[in-house]
Amino acid sequence: MASGEFRRSFGEFYESIYLPDHAAPLNRWVHFLSNLSALVFCGLGAWFLSLPLFALGVWFQLGPPYLGHILFEKTHRSIDQSPIFAALGSWFTTYEIFRGRQSVTHGRAPKSKP
Question: CA–CA separation, 44 vs 98, rounded Å?
């Protein structure tokens, strides 16, 4: 599939675009900490019915990761190809880090051999 063609499945996008674009450990840390901050501030905004806190959570979800791409990866190809899949990829990676399937610094944990 050519680089400009739309990716039909999230799995294909995640494997071929998202993971290679998030190889730098510092960028992975920025994404992980941004997701945690977004959860905290969006949660606080919802709990206290505070639009500024909720907006700060949204900014944490979008701002620092984009800066991480500019500073550490020198690319934002995943956002250019599909902003929705890029956001899903960020949350899926955070989920996999919590499950122990990925590392914040080293990417995917090695699979054990049967």
Answer: 21
